Structure formats: structure tokens, C-alpha cells
Write the C-alpha cells for this entry.
Amino acid sequence: MKTYAELAPSPRTILTPGPVEVDPRVLRAMSMPILGQFDPEFTALMNDTMGMLRQLFRTNNEWAYPIDGTSRSGLEAALVSLIEPGDKVLVPIYGRFGYLLQEIAERCGAVLVTLEQQWGSVFDPEEVIAAIRKERPDIVAIVHGETSTGRIQPLADIGRACRELDVLLVVDAVATIGGVPVETDAWQLDVVVGGAQKCLSVPSGMAPITYNARAEQKLLKRKRVERGLRTTSTPSSTSDPLFAPIRSNYFDLSQLQDYWSPLRLNHHTEMTSMLYALREGVRIILAEGLEARFARHRLQEQALMAGLEAMGLSLYGDPASKLTVVTCVNIPPGVDGESVRDMLLGKFGIEIASSFGPLKGRIWRIGTMGYSCSTKNVLHFLGAFEAVLVRHGVPVQAGAGVQAALDVY
Amino acid sequence: MKTYAELAPSPRTILTPGPVEVDPRVLRAMSMPILGQFDPEFTALMNDTMGMLRQLFRTNNEWAYPIDGTSRSGLEAALVSLIEPGDKVLVPIYGRFGYLLQEIAERCGAVLVTLEQQWGSVFDPEEVIAAIRKERPDIVAIVHGETSTGRIQPLADIGRACRELDVLLVVDAVATIGGVPVETDAWQLDVVVGGAQKCLSVPSGMAPITYNARAEQKLLKRKRVERGLRTTSTPSSTSDPLFAPIRSNYFDLSQLQDYWSPLRLNHHTEMTSMLYALREGVRIILAEGLEARFARHRLQEQALMAGLEAMGLSLYGDPASKLTVVTCVNIPPGVDGESVRDMLLGKFGIEIASSFGPLKGRIWRIGTMGYSCSTKNVLHFLGAFEAVLVRHGVPVQAGAGVQAALDVY
């Protein structure tokens, strides 16, 4: 019978758009002994986490808590809880993760309307607003930061239009939360889903979500209390019979909010160690300060871009919509992008990303997120990248990249 | 603005039916630096985990991998992937978690047939088999170990009957895997879902699952490749148009198995630290040896029961169907069960569980699972329980419980 070796992961410099390096304080939090899910010490940690997430999302929403799953679990929880089969959902798509929203919404039984924008740019908000006025969807679902193309979509105007037209706006902020501003209340976003393993620098495993009273109102119309928990004081349903029940138990936000409320109505068994990690990760972020953190991400992006351009490389996509935390580089003609990535990982312990679909083999994607977003990492990468490109026959002036980045610092 | 204290969980003796104490080696594994999800070192760890899970489930199935969520995520993944809306699903219910299977199956669009057995006992397999012959369901979903009542349902005869009648059998082994025998192949179980935070002593956050070629055949008929990943070499669908597509993206086993296969078709971002924990937890279990582990759980159960009975307490439920790893105790008349639990936790740092629905306030539930299942814990608990019961006016002979347990050891 096969035997399995001791766990001993190699040290890595992770400069992908997620998962990224985890702060050692977060790793340490996960090594703490667990508490029972209804232990008052643990429910106090759950309440702490809700309070901190409100600050992170910049919202006064009552509901801000993690979904127990990877980032896309948060997207699915939002969509399956809000979409009744037959609801019209508008998805403006400008990269791979727009297709994911489309896919999830379709599986929830939505009638889909999509807008597509050339990859590498984003929508003029007026174009989206015109489509909302024309189609009058029940829900608009849109990506804030699209890691597949390294773009960011402005949302404030779209948020205002959705509020005026009484449309629910669901935002995928998986890549942006904690790295660039996400203004839930100021931009009038009804539901925002964040990711753990990107700018929060927490391991993949939880998806923080927030939603307002407009979204909650729809949930409550569809609510049913779980069988096996029903008593005379908690009847089976508060739902309006005109509304279809939610198609998932695991992702039912109306049940989850009862679990996260003082009611503590039993649902799943909260992921103890991941909750420790998320609480510690967000605590570190708030201690750094959101504005200081955003400034750090901008500085590292500037240094990285200066270094890459000094090496004679060109950046992919429309500069006006560049996402601070993901920098996409065109692979020079004749260069095998995967061979470059393999050598970076194998010899230098540095991981960068390839891309999806139409961009596969055409660009590299470099993430500067959270704990990975540091001067040490950017300089180490630029030096290593130069060496690897030279080995792949790309004419790069020795030292130019690192020197240009140092000039920025 | 509120400030948040350093994480400092109190040490606990956790004798609930989950989550239970985590082996320090598993906690240590979670504190290791992360690897990228497509780093060859990480995919090797994923493959290790699949190999170890096959041993744990005692199966030669190709597919054995974790679902990224809590235990009920594994149940929902199995059911939403296999149930087409309109499929007939038979759920024999003998406790709370049978209702959960019913609830999830209903939300998947199944036509439900349920059998109900008095709580505290289990089904005569012949009764279930007769219902299968009569109803001819597409799927039978049943709980193996019911923690709400502390019972275990024999499955071998039901497995044989389902195979003969070409019915898919889905088993909730969340509470039993790693604590008592679960014989996937020998009992002819088509899908088995385990839990992390019970007898595996891994923190909540992953649900190991295995399924055979019979289950896979149904998945493949419903398969669609995710939008945004489709290329000419991976077309959108291999599905039979007569079969309804799977209603979830996150829980789509046909996509998940592509992610866990050498194809590594991108889906979610695997939970790195939880995968480390699961791999280490199962590695420790296989090193102990499954038979030795089952014997340890039986021994501690015997000692615990002897101690409780020597204290004059009575056990709940039919002894013939008692689940080794959960012992239910009738709360003596006039005693406030929650006050006893609060004093155990507050003064002795010991957590035991209350119960659900009709048993709420009537029984305590004591788990002896995984790392929590130790002589030290059983003896500590019996001594503390005696002291707390005396303080609650229950006449208990001093020292009797601990001495009776020592006699068993």
C-alpha cells in the first residue's frame, strides 16, 4: 500500500491573481485549537467577523458574513437565493468571470440577457444603463475586477441607475475587495461578494458577502425553515406563496442569516479554522488601514509596470481600465509562455499565471495582491523574469527592469 | 471604531458529535505556507489525498475527492448532480439528518417518497427494501450514522437490493467515516459522503465524497463544460439532450471530476489549507490503521457507557442500533439540561451537545470521535459530569462513574 510523505510545501513567491501568499499571522491563527460552533467564545468571533466585514465592505448593512466555500460559492449563494426561475438577469461580460456569472444565473433558471465587451476593455457605464432601461431586468450581475483580463469596471453610475429603476445589482468583487476601493453603500450596490485568497491574503475557503435590506426583502419572501428544525415557534415558512422557494439548502441566504443572527438557528457547522483565518486576515487589513493598503497596491503596480516596460515588454489591454492588482503582459512573439512560467517556478520559486479562453498563450498575468504585494516580491520577480526571458531568447537589457522599479520606490 | 482582540481561543475538551478536537499535527499542517492551485507540488498533494480517501472509503472507485464546503455541501453536491427534476427519490428517515436529505432533494426538484421510523431506532432493512420494490425510485438517500439520535443503520442488504433493482444509493456517512466501518464497495454503495469535523478530526470545511461508475454515468449525461472555458477541444457539452443539465455550478460533480483529473480543467480555487488539513488528517488515520481506530472508538464507548450507567443515568434509544461514536443520555426529570451544559463548559471547559426537534431538552448527546475519543477525555468528563449533576440536585454516588470506566480500561 502506498505510503504518503510528510507535508513539506516548498517556499513560493506567488504573484498570480490568486491564491496569493498568506500573512504568517493568518497561518498562525489557523493552527489554534478549535472551539465548538455554539461555544459563546466562537459565536463572539463570528460577531467580530461580521463587524469587521462591514468596515471592509464600507457598508452599514446588517448582513455581512462569509459563505463557507471558495469565492464562487459566494456568487452562487447570492444568485440562487435571489433569482427565481424565470427572473430576467442582465450580465455585462468583459472577461471570463462574466461568463461564470452567466453560467451560474442560467443554472438558477434565469432568463439571461448578456452584453459583451471586447476583452481588454470595460463598459462605458452609459451602455450598461441603456441596456437596463431597455431590458428592465430583475437583477444585474457584474464583475468589478476581472482577473482574466486585468480590468476594472466603474460601478457608481450603474449602481445609481439600478436603484432608480428598482433593479437589484449583484457585484463580483472577488478580486478587488481589500486591494482597491469597493464602496458598497456609496455606489448603491445591493449585493457584494468578496474573495478570500486574493487581496485579503487568506487561504481559499470562504467568500465574504454583504447585502442590503432590498436584497433581504426578496430573500424573506422565499424563505423556508429547514425540515427537522421546525417547531411551533419557528413555523415552516414565512414565505409569500407567490414566490418560488430557494433551490439550494447550502446556499440559502435566508437560512444562513438566521444562523449568523442571535437566533443561531442551526444550519451547517461553521468552518472554525477558516473563520479564524478570515477574522485575523481582515483584522490585519483594518489595522493597516484601507486607504494605506490601496496606496501600497498602487505603488507596487507602478513599480512593476515601470520595470516591465523598461524591459521592453508591452502591457495588455486598455490602460484606462487597468485593474491595479493584476498586470497583464503580452507574451513576445515566438516565446513559449508556459516554458517561461515553468522555469520561473522551477528555478526561482516564483509563480505567475497564464490565461483563459481567447487569451490562452497570449498573455501572462501577474498579481500584486495582499501579502504578496511587496517591494521584495516585485524586485525579486523582475530580476528573475529578466533572467528567464534572456534564456528564452528575448533581448532584454540587463538590470533595466529592477532599476526602473527602484526609481519608482 | 471598535477594535478587535487578538485571537486566543480557550482550551476545550470537546465531546459533542462534531466539531471535535483536532490533532495538533493537523493544526500544524494548516500553518504551512500555501502553494498555488496548479503548482505541481500542490496537484501532487491533491492526488495523494484522492489515494488516501479511497483507502478510507474502502473503495476502488476512480473518484474520491473532497467537496469544498462543510459536510452538507457534500450531500448537496451528490444530490443536485444526480437528481434530475422529476426524479423519484426515496428517503428513509429516522432522525434529523434524514429530514435534511429530504429537504435538499426537494430543493433539487425531486419527487419525494419518505419512510419514517420512530426516533431512537432504525429501519429493519427489509422494510426499506420492500418500499424500494414498491416505489421503484431513481435514487435512495439514507443516513448511515444519525447523530441526532445516536443510531446506526445497517446498509449491506439495502445496498444489495438497490444494485439488483438498478437504483442509485446515496449514503450520508458524515458521522461514521473514520470511526466505524464504512464499506463502500462491499456494501455496494454508489455514492458515499463523509464529514471532516467528526471522526476524521479535521476542522469543518471539506466533505470527502466517493462515487462509482454507475453514478458517474448519470453525471456524464448531464455534463456541460463551463462557459469561458469552452474551446474547440473541449466542446460545451457531452450531454444527452434528454437529460436535464445540473442546476448548480459549484456542486457540479461532472465539472469537479475534470478539475480533480489530469485534465485539471479550472473550476474553483481549491482550498489550500483545508486540503493540507484533510490530507494530514487522513494520513494520521491510515497510520493508526482503520481497524485499530474502530477498536479505539468501541473501547471508549464501552468505558463511557459503563461510567454513565454506574452514575445511575439511563441511555436513550434502542441499544441494538446504538452508534458507537455518539452516546445519548436521558436528562433526569426536573433537571435543566442547558444549565448542566453551561456549567460543564464554563467551569470544566467541557462541551457536550443538546439535541434537536422532539428531543430538545430531553437528551444530552456525547460524542467520542477521532482525536477527542481518548481515555483522558472520557475520565475527565465523567468526573466533571458527576460534580455538575450533584450541583443540580441529582443523587450520584461519588466516584462511581470514573471507577466503572477504569474497570473497562
In short: Residues 11 and 349 of chain B are 7 Å apart (CA to CA).
